[in-house]
Amino acid sequence: MGIFSRTRDIIAANVTDLLDRAEDPAKMIRMIILEMEETLVEVRASAARTIADQKEIRRHITKLDALQTSWTEKAELALSKDREDLAKAALVEKQKAADMADQLKEQIGVLDEALRASEEDIAKLQAKLREARARQTSLVTRMESAQNRLRAREMYAGEKVHDAFARFEMLERRVDMAEGHADAMSLGAQPKTLEQEIADLQANDKVEAELAALKAAQAKKD
């Protein structure tokens, strides 16, 4: 069963209220749009039939007008031949054709009103359809935004993120320990005195002199 009873209900419908009451707004808006599109097709098809009927009736009216002219000519011919009886009979047939043409013209007027009503309905249905499609676009955008926010929250609060940060913290702790060990090695160390630095220089000179002597002795042997 459809959401609407068709054209009148669709035109009078408040799409926002329908969506607010729906358990699944996305599904509801799809159903609304589908029914609006189907109804619009039906109304256009009805308007097309009305236009076709008008054209057919106008063709009949044209033929009846020609028939009236023909009976008039026949009545004139009969009178010219002193056949008043035939002239009257021809005029009776002419009147029948005129009466039928008048009836068809009344039908044309009724169809004109129906066509104007269809045109108004089509315009209103199109407006409602645009409104529904705009609401659908808005719903899709909001749904995508909500899903993106949910994925972001799951990413921030998920176990993988917690595990990753836990590993980062372990690495940071290892770095802290290594830096602590390096800093501990320098704890308690006393700076060298002037005498110690000079003694180091003297010892270095002795080593350099001994190295030079060894090189000289080695050169003599060669």
Write up this protein.
There is one protein chain. This protein is mainly alpha-helical and 222 residues long. The protein folds into two domains: 7-160; 194-222. Helix content is 89%, strand content 0%. It contains six helices and no strands. The chain has helices at residues 7-12, 15-21, 25-80, 84-157, 159-185, 194-221. Helix 2 (15-21) runs antiparallel to helix 3 (25-80) and helix 3 runs antiparallel to helix 4. The longest helix is centred in the middle third of the chain and has 74 residues, at 84-157. It is rod-shaped and about 170 Å long.
Précis, in short:
With 222 residues, the chain is mainly α. The chain is built from 6 helices and no strands. It folds into 2 domains: 7-160; 194-222.
Low-confidence stretches: none
Quote the distance from N terminus to C terminus: 117 Å
The helicity comes to over 70%
Helical run tally? 6
How many domain units? Answer: 2
Mind summarizing the main beta sheet? none
**Average residue-wise pLDDT:** 83
Helix/strand/pairing class, anyone? mainly alpha
Order of helices and strands: HHHHHH
Radius of gyration: 53 Å
Strand content: under 5%
Strand segment tally: 0
Instruction: Based on Cα principal axes, name the global outline.
Output: rod-shaped
